[in-house]
Amino acid sequence: MGAERLVRPADGVIRLEGVTKVYGTVDNPVRALSGVTLRLPAGTFTAVMGPSGSGKSTLLSCAAGLETPTDGRVFIDGVALAGSSETALTKLRRQRVGFVFQQFNLLPTLTVLQNVTLPLRLAGRRVDRAKCVEVLTAVGLGDRLDHRPAELSGGQQQRVAIARALATSPKVIFADEPTGALDSRSAREVLGLLRHAVAAMGQTVVMVTHDPLAAAAAGTVLLLSDGRIVDRLTNASAEQIAERMTHLGAVDMPGVR
Question: What is the DSSP string of the chain?
């Protein structure tokens, strides 16, 4: 069965309605998400935080269509994911979703430019080389098109990953700990690029992070605990986020109390 459009995109690029996710067995269930309802409008930058085991990675996986909720509904750009075949979900993700992970997931044998054009080729879409070069230039790698990943720093490799996500013009970018493997300077640069993608390119970014400094780059911070959204902070500082996190679980951020 193909994906069915049930809601208007204006209702949120990402929309979750009563999403629950349970792992384990009937005798030993583990409830990772408990009835999460959420709407994320276009052109917003949202960070998701919570203690270990709070459900933040599961939330991202369900919102991105990588996992199927046990109960509830998920919409991407107005399209309901429930009932879609794996083929239809793969097509939807390739057309409307970009991913940035802690591990850059670049193919070592491909050049920077080839890594960026790869998702377009996999989706069977026309490769606009000029646009891909433009995106790479925007992330500061216009002079590294023919380099291999091993010739780049960690921060530069993450920029390639961001360019790869942007090149497909997705409706939403999901970023899972995108600064986790980077030094502080590279992390600031990557967060600046994600903010630029939202402010200048109208992208919608959803970022899972454990770092209050990274979360402070987002306009909204969602705090999870025991599979539920327990708080929402707007334009909060790293100190404010860290303070709120202390009530949910230990936060490890030197210099912020």
Answer: ---EE-S-GGG-SEEEEEEEEEEE-SSSEEEEEEEEEEEE-TT-EEEEE-STTSSHHHHHHHHTTSS--SEEEEEETTEE-TT--HHHHHHHHHHHEEEEESS----TTS-HHHHHHHHHHHTT----HHHHHHHHHHTT-TT-TT--GGGS-HHHHHHHHHHHHHHT--SEEEEESTTTTS-HHHHHHHHHHHHHHHHTT---EEEE-S-HHHHTTSSEEEEEETTEEEEEEES--HHHHHHHHTTTS----TT--
**pLDDT tops 50 at residue 88:** yes
Taking each helix axis as running N to C, give the angle between helix 129-138 and helix 112-122, from 0 to 180 degrees, rounded to the nearest 10.
Answer: 130
Inter-residue contact 73 to 52 (CB < 8 Å): no
Mean pLDDT score, 136-155: 95
Q: What is the pLDDT of residue 249?
A: 62
- The predicted model scores a pTM of 0.88
* Amino acid of residue 123: A
Higher pLDDT, 236 or 138: 236
Check residue 120 and give left, alpha or beta (phi > 0: left; psi -120 to 50: alpha).
alpha
10-44 pLDDT, tens per residue? 568 999 999 999 999 889 999 999 999 999 999 99
The CA distance from 201 to 204, in Å, is 9
Q: Which residue has the tokens 């793969």?
A: 90
Express each pLDDT in 171-192 by its tens digit: 999 999 999 989 999 999 999 9
Instruction: Please say whether the beta carbons of 115 and 106 come within 8 A.
Output: yes
